[in-house]
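User: Structure please.
Assistant: Input sequence and predicted structure:
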Amino acid sequence: MDFVVGLPRTHRQHDSIWVIVDRFSKSSHFLPVKVSYLAEDYAKLYIKEIVKLHGASLSIISDRDGQVERTIQTLEDMLRACVINFKGNRDDHLPLIEFSYNNSYHSSISMAPFEALYGRRCQFPVGSFEVGEFSLLGPEVVMRPRRKISPMREVMRFGKKGKLSPRYVGPYEILKRVRKVAYELKLPIELAPVHPVFHISMLKKCIGDPVSILPLEGLGVDENLSYEEALVEILDRQVKKLRNKEVASVKILWRNHLVEGTTWEAEADMKSRYPHVFLLLLA
């Protein structure tokens, strides 16, 4: 478990989100909380929202470096999408965000967390969702939110691809401070479609090191402000056993210009996308 703090207060005075992730199924829960909560308040909320669904946990790891952080990155992206597209109260969006996250395909387990937890795909009354496709059974107004908040995969937006660590472009001049946790930046013409106000969690202080700065020129950013990463090398391989199946993963070294990073990806997915790399390994 971990926390997302420093958020604007909602109508119910919630200013944080309690993120709880199951280590096996990757199933996640996003619970609105307050920084003023005591241990007793968290214990009651844990029984109300977690124990009633999954039973008591054998162990709880707080602030685990890796798995929860990646979930939080996805949660923040989905929250921004909701704020931009739907406005309204954040507390009202969290249940839909949690539903969308747990019913999205995860490469680490080769299925959605819902399927790993319950042994079957989720059946939703307005539609049937599969990896890469869906069958619409409800009105457009119902399906629109799901498409808006679904996590983006295999695309880099503002220097972020899949599970890789955040990337940055810039530096850009700060024009003014907007409230306590946001700043307005002076963006170049190339980023004209982007809203210039950013939360502090999306910004990184420029320390004057040219190596740490990713220039926008020559980056190959398309009209959607996205660009693809380049696979450099396969560093390692592992096989995880999930109930009645085995899932093979490979550790990939990615590179785009001056930035490098590693991530574990499904071997089958990588073979389909980069067959030439595996042919070289066999050779």
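Confidence is low (pLDDT under 50) at residues 127-138, 151-166.
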